[in-house]
Amino acid sequence: MRPSPNFPLEGLRVGAALLLLISALWAQHPGRSSDPLLAERSASTEDAWTFHKRVDEVTLFFTVTERRRFVQDLALDNIRVYDNRQAVTRISAFQHQLELPLHIGLLVDTSASVNPRFRFEQESAIQFLRQIVRKGVDSAFIMGFSDQVRLAQDFCDDTERLAKGVRELYNGGGTAILDAIRTASLKLAASPADAQPAARILIVLSDGEDNASQSTFRQTLDLAVAEEVTIYTINTRVESIEPRLSYGSAAGDGVLKHLAEQTGGRFFSQMNATGVARAFSKIEEEIRNRFVLSYHPENIVEDGRFRQVQIIAEKSGRRYHVHARKGYYARATSRAP
Question: Candidates 3.40.50.300, 3.40.30.10, 3.40.50.410, 3.40.50.720; correct CATH number of 99-288?
């Protein structure tokens, strides 16, 4: 994001400092998460993202682009995967996202700070859901949050019920965005299991400001990564020539941007009515152009540690850009294979 000439210098310093701190924490990755809620789920909750319900399989969703155009005509021979810098020799499945169901969570900031742009956010979200949710295939839920989280519509494939849930959201109160993202991630993780993997996608509309969360950034990110949730964030903060009329801050940008990047999603910033609609359109396009693969890591120890993953896509001597999440947790599970 490029700040406007009138962007408050102090806000820029704070935002930059926060982003550096977040990056440093992620780079250090001390291994096992200290989040008690994450540890509890690691010990007791099934992982619904594996192809055959095995504990030693990893599933990754990713896009491949060349000059900002999605590449679709790829075969397994065009893909290489590295797990903790070791080449993966057993890729058990590879296919296009179009063939798989979507589990979508729409998380809408309803706090007082988003009041000037609340209505256009609602209408853009409704249009997106009507375009992307396929009846009998996909499912979605609607959550609103201020200082509390409210489920407006549970999982369903009826776009009119989903639209009704969005319209019933009302705004006011503080902002607990990290608590809300953790709650939504857990709900996606608990979505009904399918015979095949379903993409877990969380879309967050917010200005990024947080003044009421009990969760930390690290706890929120660790949980989303562990539950393999892809987060797309749309920052609806509006810049103004007068600083006192601006909503949100560079700090909020940093939080939303890093959550999206580390989970394999995208970050969209400073969206007006037209921009929000365009962001939803880009999210839909990316979701429908993703690939999914599953593989068996060699010599994996289910110790809860984070393992980095790299995907390389090449064809006819051309190497493409791959966008995916950065890795996964090798967590233990009580479930039998």
Answer: 3.40.50.410
